[in-house]
Amino acid sequence: MNTGFDVERVRKDFPVLSRELPGGRPLVYLDSGNSAQKPTQVIDVMREHLAVHYANVGRAMHVLGSESTEAYEAARDKIAAFVGAPSRDEIVFTKNASEALNLVAYAFGNPMNTDPRFRIEPGDEIVISEMEHHSNIVPWQLLAQRTGVTLRWFSVTDEGRLDLSNLDELVTERTKIVSIAHQSNVLGTVNPVAQVLARARQVGALTMLDGSQSVPHRPVDVAALGVDFLAFTGHKAVGPSGIGVLWARGELLDAMPPFLGGGEMIEAVWMDRSTYAPAPHKFEAGTPPIVEAVGLGAAVDYLSGIGMEAIAEHERELTGYALEALGEIPGLRVIGPQTLEERGGTVSFTLEGIHPHDVGQILDDNFGVAVRVGHHCARPLHLRFGIPATTRASFYLYNTPAEIDALVRGLHHVQKVFA
Question: Which of 66, 251, 279, 382 is the S-S candidate for 375 at Cβ 3.0 to 4.6 Å?
């Protein structure tokens, strides 16, 4: 394994990992693709802010108000640096990645937006993919229904890769935006975004990446990617729930209309009209998720302190170990890439003749192994493979080969139960 990565030291930072479940079973948490556990460093920062620094931000002139605002805006600085944003003002806090994706979809065809890049009408097209999370499908379906434009998508190969064989036919001069997952939450596939983004730029289309599964697990630099929008969420990145991030190029944020109206997002208000604050505050109406933003700032500090390259390499080794071990279980079918090439630490699979819900229940009840079962908010992808659901094991910086061994033992037991 990665000799420069001390997983046992990392595990000590996560209190829940030392928990004993009923019956004395140790917790084996293999569900970080759903939501990651939180280190003491994040918990303590949030607790301290609530205990001795909390006040509303951007409104109060007293000491607590100043301290709270400073901590909130410092988190914005940290996150901008974490994703390579050229400016802190390009970081918009949302409540999750879903809201960030909806915010961008709302800007298209909006009569308040006169920028031609966001003008959309029947005959125009939106391009997504068949492997998307529902959060990167439904907002674009709603936009298509609202405006009469056409929704198109990349298909997925039998190996779980984006099918780019018709890239030039799919992304054309009619395309207004291409929005795809950077990394699949089901397949683990890391998509060849450079090729897709290059084609989109060639035809003048805007581009968006759902980074919910990539930003917590590998180095991501928006400037190097050359993308226009990036969404991700805090709770998958050892941060709290209730906080997400939209990064967008500053000129695009300037053109986009407010998503919500209320306090803080205004410049001036009269009874018959309002003017709006510049980005990012234009998109942060009302009291924001203050403590959650501070917690996400602490989370990116924690991840940066370990090093995203080291985390990615640790997960790569775990994934290789898991693919080999799972491949030896008869009747087990991995849905997605079978090799480590362009692949992250998420492995979804089926067990012949056994429903994933039964698999998950027995793993939890008998072995303390926490996995996710279902269609993982990616039903179209499961329909593509002709299956109703999968069992998904997802790995993170605190997981070990011994935990994968526990998963394998549990799956053998599941097969014995249903034999």
Answer: 382
User: What pLDDT, on the 0 to 100 scale, is given for residue 2?
Assistant: 54
Token digits for 253?
């944020």
| Residue numbers of the domain that contains 12 | 7-30+307-417
Annotated catalytic residues are 377
Do 343 and 411 sit in the same domain of this protein?
yes
- How much is the pLDDT for 261? 96
Residue 357's CATH number: 3.90.1150.10
**Torsions phi, psi of 206, nearest 5?**
-75, 160
Task: Note whether 370 and 29 are within 8 A (CB).
Answer: yes
Q: Which of the pair, 325 or 114, is modelled with greater confidence? A: 325
Taking the complete model, does pTM exceed 0.90, yes or no?
Answer: yes
Reduce the DSSP state of residue 152 to 3 states and report it: strand
Instruction: Verify that 63 and 193 share a domain, yes or no.
Output: yes
Could you tell me whether strands 372-374 and 91-94 are parallel, antiparallel, or unpaired per DSSP bridges? unpaired
User: Is the distance from CB of 355 to CB of 418 less than 8 angstroms?
Assistant: no
Residue 70, number of CB atoms within 10 A of its CB: 12
pLDDT tens-place string over residues 195-246? 999 999 999 999 999 999 999 999 999 999 999 999 999 999 999 999 999 9
AA identity, residue 51: A
Comparing 419 with 407, the larger pLDDT belongs to 407
**155 and 122 in one domain?**
yes
State how beta strands 274-276 and 266-269 pair: antiparallel
Alpha-carbon distance of 317 to 397, in angstroms, equals 11
